[in-house]
């Protein structure tokens, strides 16, 4: 099925561990973004990309890295996990960034 | 930076009542998008408004974009239990960088 695929769906990390959240889309969308959603809050932009090889920071980039080597994939790396990074992470893609975003089903991350 | 405010934060209605959520931006928007997120789910794109004063309808849902392109509203007529969820607006000024409001969570009593 066409869409945005995120893995894993759930993850528990210990403080200080690193990991990569995977995101892949098969719609040939140029624009991809990572958001985090905390309870009772909206979606805050972490990083985004307007095409392969191009990335930029959103409003909450600290502690996260991204890269975009292909159009399809946009992984998010947590460098040294902290309890404040406990959240639900959503990856989203859009045609040219101007049209509606298609979201993945999310990764629920707990840092202990 | 750009801010998008959404009110109310929560709305509890009896099934059959109407519901409205409002979205206000600190800057002029090129477009505004609306999403629905069911409990435990992910945001799903509903609609996009582009033109000043634009009004669009999807069955019982009516979306409006203000004349100044700084505010928008979503109105649901005769709510149903299937309308439960959080409704987000997202304002776009620069392509690829939408700013989401904090959402309005709707609960419906049957």
- Estimate the global geometry of chain A from the Cα principal axes: globular
Main beta-sheet annotation of chain B: 6 strands, mixed
Give the radius of gyration of chain B. 13 Å
- Topology order of chain A in helix (H) and strand (E) letters: EEEEEEEEEEE
Written account of the structure:
The complex is a heterodimer of chains A (about 110) and B (about 110). With about 110 residues, chain A is an all-beta fold. Chain A has strands at about 5, 10-15, 20-25, 30-35, 45-50, 55, 65, 75-80, 85-95, 100-105, 105-110. Helices cover about 0% and strands about 50% of the residues of chain A. In chain A, strand 5 (about 45-50) and strand 6 form a beta hairpin. In chain A, strands 2, 4, 5, 6, 9, 10 and 11 form a seven-stranded mixed beta sheet that branches. Chain A has a four-stranded antiparallel beta sheet with strand order 1-3-8-7, with no helix packed on it. Chain A contains no helices and eleven strands. By secondary structure, chain B is mainly β. Chain B is built from no helices and eleven strands. In chain B, strands 2, 4, 5, 9, 10 and 11 form a six-stranded mixed beta sheet that branches. Chain B has a five-stranded antiparallel beta sheet with strand order 1-3-8-7-6, with no helix packed on it. The radius of gyration of chain B is 13 Å and the shape is globular. The interface between A and B is medium-sized, with 29 and 26 residues.
């Amino acid at each position: 099925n066409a869409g945005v695929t995120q893995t894993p769906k759930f993850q528990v990390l210990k403080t200080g561990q690193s990991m990569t959240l995977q995101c892949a889309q098969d719609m040939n969308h140029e624009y991809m973004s990572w958001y985090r959603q905390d309870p009772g809050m909206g979606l805050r932009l972490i990083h985004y990309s307007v095409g392969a090889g191009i990335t930029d920071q959103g409003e909450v980039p600290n502690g996260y890295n991204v890269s975009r080597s292909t159009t399809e994939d946009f992984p998010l790396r947590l460098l040294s996990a902290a309890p404040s990074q406990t959240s639900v992470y959503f990856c989203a893609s859009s045609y040219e960034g101007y049209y509606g975003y298609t979201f993945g089903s999310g990764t629920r991350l707990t840092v202990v | 930076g750009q801010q998008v405010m959404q009110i109310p934060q929560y709305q509890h209605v009896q099934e059959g009542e109407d519901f409205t959520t409002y979205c206000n931006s600190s800057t002029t928007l090129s477009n505004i998008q609306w999403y629905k997120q069911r409990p435990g789910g992910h945001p799903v794109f509903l609609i996009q408004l582009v033109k000043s004063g634009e009004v669009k309808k999807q069955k019982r849902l009516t979306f409006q974009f203000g004349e100044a392109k700084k505010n928008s509203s979503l109105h649901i007529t005769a709510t149903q239990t299937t309308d439960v969820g959080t409704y987000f607006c997202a304002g776009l000024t620069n392509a690829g960088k939408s700013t989401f409001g904090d959402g309005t969570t709707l609960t419906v009593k049957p």
